[in-house]
Amino acid sequence: MMRAFTRETSKVVAIPGVNCDTDQIIPGRFLKADRAQGYGQFLFHDIRRNEQGELDPSFPLNQPGAENATILLVEDNFGCGSSREGAVYALVDHGVRAVIGPSFGDIFYNNALKNGVVPVRLPVEDCEALADHLARFPDAEVTVDLTASKVTLPGNLGTHPIVIDAFARECILQGLDEIEMTFTYMEQIKAFETDRIASHSWLDR
């Protein structure tokens, strides 16, 4: 079930790499695993490990305190490649609530919205400024406020609008998928059907 998202304040982990594809986010060989066990353990599995299969301490997600961060900063075209929804499952199961970047793969972007992960598009220069700030102040926090549709960056980097589809935004705010959101309009749907049949009696034959 999708977790509702209204406002999240967190440290930010900057993930390096332009065109980070879904196979880097979660390698395809793990997609057969039972998700009940959690896909978070497979997040960036291969790129966060060295040749011996051990966690690389230099990889940002492996550094002290990073495991508690719920916001990622990524580079251009994050989530490109295949349509695997497992990439978003891995983020969700790891605890990631929002991803900030200049651009995202289209299918990844839509999968994120459907699973309650907020993809925040910011201009390249703002993302680079945030990355520079985080390099100097690794404990700096960012606030993603979906209720107010804005993201507040640390220091003097300002506040920027979050622009996502209105229906998707409402679903995420309420923690409902598209079908569950439709059910919230059941009384209106029933009323419409009753009125429609009353005015077009032949529909009920």
From TrEMBL:
Family as reported in the entry's similarity comment: Belongs to the LeuD family. LeuD type 1 subfamily.
Enzyme kind, highest EC tier: lyase
Keyword Acetylation: no
Role played: Catalyzes the isomerization between 2-isopropylmalate and 3-isopropylmalate, via the formation of 2-isopropylmaleate.
Known partners and oligomeric status: Heterodimer of LeuC and LeuD.
UniProt EC number: 4.2.1.33
Pathway membership, UniProt: Amino-acid biosynthesis; L-leucine biosynthesis; L-leucine from 3-methyl-2-oxobutanoate: step 2/4
Key words of the record: Amino-acid biosynthesis, Branched-chain amino acid biosynthesis, Leucine biosynthesis, Lyase
CDD domains cross-referenced by the UniProt entry: IPMI_Swivel (cd01577)
Annotated protein name in UniProt: 3-isopropylmalate dehydratase small subunit
Name of the coding gene: leuD
All residue ranges annotated as the Aconitase A/isopropylmalate dehydratase small subunit swivel domain in the record: 3-123
Top-level division of the source organism's lineage: Bacteria
GO molecular function: 3-isopropylmalate dehydratase activity
Reactions the enzyme catalyzes: (2R,3S)-3-isopropylmalate = (2S)-2-isopropylmalate
